[in-house]
Write a structure and sequence with these properties.
By secondary structure, the chain is an all-alpha fold. It contains 4 helices and no strands. The chain is about 75% helix and about 0% strand. It is elongated, with a radius of gyration of 15 Å.
Length: about 130
Amino acid sequence: MSLLGILAVVAGFVGMAAIVMAGSAVAALAMGRSPATAAGEPPPGRGYLVFDFALGMLAALAGGMTTAWLAPFAPIGHALALSGLVLAMALVCLLTYGDNGPPRWYQALLSLVSSGVVVAGAWLIAP
């Protein structure tokens, strides 16, 4: 993978993170929660999880499209690299979140589905 390819994957990931962080903060505040889950705070409710899942899919789609658009060659291959990065980061979150935050089954589901949506986003715009 070339330097431009690496930058394409990083740009897709940064775009995903920006969408998720901004959207999650707005949703948390709108639902009366703190943007960062604090210890002792009740787990997120169903409405928040549904919104968060939809937001994650939108971010994954945008990240895959961004990566494919910026990739100097093999846009699907670069999106697969981003998908692997998403899964690796999800594993880190699963292992470090503890009981603060969404249920583990939700985190696992979001990670698996969003990694596929990353590739679907790239497929939508790949030549």
